[in-house]
Amino acid sequence: MDPLVSAAQASGVTTLTLDSPANRNALSAALVAELRAAFAVAGQDPAVRAVVLTHTGNTFCAGADLKSPCDPEDFVALMREVVELPKPVVARVTGHVRAGGLGLLGSCDIAAAGPGATFAFTETHLGLAPAVISVPLLCRLDPRAAARYFLTAEAFGPVEAARIGLLTLSADAAPAEKPDEPEDSLDHLDPVDLALAPVLDGLRKASPQGLAETKKLVTAEVRAAFDRDAARLTALSAALFASDEAREGITARFERRSPSWVS
Question: How many angstroms separate the CA atoms of 209 and 203, rounded?
């Protein structure tokens, strides 16, 4: 079986690529297990200053794999491991992000997306709630925006995602400072890579200790939320997935029809 997550290292940065385009990089048990293992390796490598999380295909992550879902406890462990990794984790998004994929995105320290990216918390349309993903996200998002998008499942783009705190930056915006690279070396870069170039340049120049201790400072609220809420919301997520409404919502999605509660 081909790996679902590939890893590459260059110039102090490990790039982890979600590589399961057949199911839109959905959070299957196998993908979550591979991603946890890859983060563990990167976290222990003294040569690594940062980890970039990206994807193949036109979807960063479609959320839970409804045909082969991971255990909620394993997904919560993955998000927590991203938050607690002693290296900064940078999300590079050039496609769509849905549901649980937004929890993975929200666990990253820095996130950038290109103009083709879209985002949606689709849980309420399936009889579910954005339960476990709310642990990292409610610490980062504008509260009024979180209420709107969590409830309505509306799709929105990268400019709005940056405005509400889901993204650090949208690739539509030019970097404030150019990295220390020759001008012509940037010509070939994707807009997202161009936007991230000064970010990664700054991380490469930082000390391991400086990065690790600073990350502890900026993730303190998120780590406290995991301590306080993760067990309760994991139980809620499991109960919702087992409910009659969720079965109807998920079945309707596979059958390409509206669920019974839609008049």
Answer: 12
Is residue 124 in a domain? yes
Q: How far apart are CA 69 and CA 35, in angstroms?
A: 15
Range of the domain at 113: 5-174+206-253
Task: Express each pLDDT in 111-135 by its tens digit.
Answer: 999 999 999 999 999 999 999 999 9
Maximum CA pair distance of the chain?
59
Q: Write the CATH number for 29.
A: 3.90.226.10
Distance, in Å, from the CA atom of 186 to the CA atom of 171, rounded to the nearest integer, reads 14
Q: Report the distance separating Cα 141 and Cα 3, nearest Å.
A: 33
Tell me, yes or no, if the pTM score tops 0.85. yes
The count of structural domains within the chain is: 1
Residue 122 near residue 102, CB atoms below 8 Å:
no
Instruction: Give CA–CA dist 103/120, Å, rounded.
Output: 11
